[in-house]
Amino acid sequence: MVKYSDELDAMFSALADPTRRSVIARLGRGPASVGELARPLSISLPSFMKHVRSLESCGLIRTEKSGRVRTCVLNHGRLGLLNSWLEEQRRIWEASTDRLERFVTTSQGDDTAVGPTHLKEES
Fold it and tell me: β-strand 61-66 against 69-74: which pairing, if any?
């Protein structure tokens, strides 16, 4: 995954913006024109186009122009790279929590478990 670091950085940077995340969410339901994507947002079309270019430059979306209409399409393959990275992180964290759980559960019944010595009663 290290070789994809710059690509992941660009995608996460693009997804850091709520406007761009809403565009990705909408495109998850299918292609849409730039006008259709911009309509529910309270920003100008030139400002919205900056968001489109950001998503396009990192490869999360593709745009196709037909006449005067520019249609945006979600690049599902690119989302696969994000998903692979997230799955790798999930496996790492699950392994860590599994080790922690084993440590905690095996230490509970152990009289030699490390703890504050001043709380132990002396006979």
Answer: antiparallel
Residue with tokens 């292609």: 31
* Measured distance CA(10)–CA(108) in Å, rounded: 45
Tens of pLDDT, residues 90-123: 888 887 776 777 778 887 655 555 555 555 555 4
User: In whole angstroms, what is the distance from residue 104 CA to residue 58 CA?
Assistant: 43
Task: Return mean pLDDT, the chain.
Answer: 85
Please report, as a single letter, which amino acid is at residue 8: L
Q: Is 33 helix (H, G, I), strand (E, B) or coil?
A: strand
Distance of CA 108 to the CA centre of its chain: 37
The pLDDT assigned to 5 comes to 84
DSSP, residue by residue, 50-82? HHHHHHHHTTSEEEEEETTEEEEEE-HHHHHHH
Q: What are the structure tokens assigned to 27, written together?
A: 């495109």
